[in-house]
Amino acid sequence: xxxxxxxxxxxxxxxxxxxxxxxxxxxxxxxxxxxxxxxxxxxxxxxxxxxxxxxxxxxxxxxxxxxxxxxxxxxxxxxxxxxxxxxxxxxxxxxxxxxxxxxxxxxxxxxxxxxxxxxxxxxxxxxxxxxxxxxxxxxxxxxxxxxxx
Amino acid sequence: xxxxxxxxxxxxxxxxxxxxxxxxxxxxxxxxxxxxxxxxxxxxxxxxxxxxxxxxxxxxxxxxxxxxxxxxxxxxxxxxxxxxxxxxxxxxxxxxxxxxxxxxxxxxxxxxxxxxxxxxxxxxxxxxxxxxxxxxxxx
Amino acid sequence: xxxxxxxxxxxxxxxxxxxxxxxxxxxxxxxxxxxxxxxxxxxxxxxxxxxxxxxxxxxxxxxxxxxxxxxxxxxxxxxxxxxxxxxxxxxxxxxxxxxxxxxxxxxxxxxxxxxxxxxxxxxxxxxxxxxxxxxxxxxxxxxxxxxxxxxxxxxxxxxxxxxxxxxxxxxxxxxxxxxxxxxxxxxxxxxxxxxxxxxxxxxxxxxxxxxxxxxxxxxxxxxxxxxxxxxxxxxxxxxxxxxxxxxxxxxxxxxxxxxxxxxxxxxxxxxxxxxxxxxxxxxxxxxxxxxxxxxxxxxxxxxxxxxxxxxxxxxxxxxxxxxxxxxxxxxxxxxxxxxxxxxxxxxxxxxxxxxxxxxxxxxxxxxxxxxxxxxxxxxxxxxxxxxxxxxxxxxxxxxxxxxxxxxxxxxxxxxxxxxxxxxxxxxxxxxxxxxxxxxxxxxxxxxxxxxxxxxxxxxxxxxxxxxxxxxxxxxxxxxxxxxxxxxxxxxxxxxxxxxxxxxxxxxxxxxxxxxxxxxxxxxxxxxxxxxxxxxxxxxxxxxxxxxxxxxxxxxxxxxxxxxxxxxxxxxxxxxxxxxxxxxxxxxxxxxxxxxxxxxxxxxxxxxxxxxxxxxxxxxxxxxxxxxxxxxxxxxxxxxxxxxxxxxxxxxxxxxxxxxxxxxxxxxxxxxxxxxxxxxxxxxxxxxxxxxxxxxxxxxxxxxxxxxxxxxxxxxxxxxxxxxxxxxxxxxxxxxxxxxxxxxxxxxxxxxxxxxxxxxxxxxxxxxxx
Lengths: 149, 139, 769
Description:
The complex is a heterotrimer of chains A (149), B (139) and C (769). Chain A is α+β, with helices and mostly antiparallel strands and 149 residues long. Helix content of chain A is 34%, strand content 30%. In chain A, 48% of the residues are buried. Chain B has one domain (16-133): Rossmann fold (3-Layer(aba) Sandwich), CATH 3.40.50.2300. Chain B: InterPro entries: Bact_response_regulator, CheY-like_superfamily, Sig_transdc_resp-reg_receiver.
């Protein structure tokens, strides 16, 4: 069974990134479950795989407009695809770091991979429901998706 | 720190002295009752690490069975203290196998072997015999 | 390795030692022979020197005779003869007495060549000759005084006659001159001298030759010895070479043999290492992997390169950090001598360790590896750890699956035992309803929310759904579902009390929701299995097989009949709602009985008209009646002892009636003969809960007081239990009724009864039976 602590760790990793790197905290939206079908995938996705006590994936997915604003807030003038990929990768990295800190002894956590679009490349374990936690930042909304056995 | 005056005097009947250290009365009695090794004689039992160290200071045993989770002073700290008093004491850690890292910690502090709870009398006898056969044996 | 323990080098050490000893012997012999050689050189020189001596004696005799003839002084010549005689005699007797000579430094040297048989014979002959010679010399030497007549003037001093040649030259005119007057003694001397010189003329040559022979002999001997020495040297050389050759050959052969056998061994080892299924390698003190390792390692660790790899690097990326640390500690312990290897096997942290390999396609591949460590001792001390690695993934998976299925089976059995008490239709309808409820919860959650008010607004809606699930589960006696729903409610209550809310606060809710979903899925699976089982049993029965009518069967038979009935002949008097409503009646009966027994109360429930609940209201009626029945048993009906005191039957009477009122809609009445609403207690609780102030309480009339129980957050049960005490029950009833556009009426008389009267409007779809 997924535990509250586990979810909290992933959420904290994400919000931590916004508070420190994007200079403006994000708020956590109302979480929900996706039982059938694919959870949301936006234009850019940073993903980590997890093995060990739990198996599956955790990803952060955000829209181009949101990432554009984030980059601007961070003082980046080149609003390229590459930089947006970097950004979601960084968020995934922060999530992974948080998870390592909290469950390093039970989990194996992969290095983040980044996808621009390509939702078909996100393979969630079969028959496993996903937890979707909206991450609201300014007027935008990204999603943290936790799909673990 | 180490009290060097603690020297093991062999028992007059030539047996080795055994101290049992476990917070469970049942386990202590079980070990005493089931001990079927001629060469060993129980000289003390202790319900916690503190008692064990005190008893050991008075009369150091040659062999000690040691529980890990005990009140007052846990087994790991106790092992450390006993080895300071008598470096060549043989210590068999007896504990439930919940956390291997803890058991390994006790061995690092100077214990010689490990027996998993729960154990049969035969397992206990074999483990103690193996312990007496000598630490560091390869066969 | 001990100093004396030569091991395989024993042979070569012995051979070299033998060779050195042999060389030393040859050197010693050589040295001895070389010493002899210098002796012989001295001997030759000596003998050549002495070969002149007989000649000197003879010369001295001639000179003496010459002097005498010339009438010269003879004393010194006589003395020269004596000296030459003595010198030669000493030399000869030394030679005859065992070949002793004295060399130039005066040391006595023994010449072995003089002791040979021929030499001895020759020497003896020489001695004899000398003896004869000596006999002739002696009378001459015995002479003393002057050989001349006394009147004769003293002769002129004789010329120095040390040289034999001069003497011989002078001796030529041997006959004495008639001018010299000899005394009679002189004449005797002259005669003796003539005799001597006559003998000596031949003898001195023989004696000289003898000595020269001797010299030649020694020289020959010396030459012979030199040859011997050379032979010995050559022989030694050859022997040494042969020995070396032999050693070389021997070792070459041995080496070849050893190499062949070690090659064979190496090949065998390699064959073993190549083909063995286990991963094998050695760890040295620095925890580096040895060069010899089994090929299986490549497959196990998915790498080719193990060169200079340390054990922690091997494990670093595939096991969690904590496991790695523990493992390194363990291995370090094995290197220590203190720990007993056998007694620590059980705490080997790598015995069945879960490892994760990066999958190139993304994610991880999980395997289970089993490491075994054995100390390898060489020369009595620990040299290596032999590490055996096996991939035990299949075994672990199988045993895990087995364990999981056992655990699941156990859980299912528990569930089964509960389900067996539940009427199947009720269960099916519960599962459908609960699923709808939970999906509703999820969609409430999914509604985007940013402001606190939006979050807060969700709580009540979620609460209602969860509470309904809990109520039904309780009614059916599905304890496991009820407990989960109860926990969900607790979380919601916790949120309600919080001053501020955000999405993070909702995380526990999704986790609990997930848990409920999973649990209901289990129940559903259980149910479908039971149905399958029933079909199997039914099939076998129709085929004539005899199967005991067990409880499962009975239970299932009921369900099956219902299904068959539904499918084939729908009885006109029941209609299509039969199953569900029949289910509700039973659900309420079960609930009442269960709650009563948990409260140590007795109750008789009478239901009427529930068959006529229209489809549109079925769910609401169910939720409402469950709530009211539970409340009636918990709050209304007294304990049997209390009831008998006031002359009531021990068992409380509880009635649930559903009545269609035509165009006025429907009426639902739930009535009990319990203690009625206790107005003072309600006021106290309302004050406690902060719903009203004490001042307000004092001013409330009975009607207003009764209305308090419908306020959110009101409950009169002292403890929070799953049966009551949530305070949401009546609130929920009010909300459900309001949602349907109905009204709630309440009548109560202290100590006599409570009566809930609910009016629901007529609906289009609701067709009264």
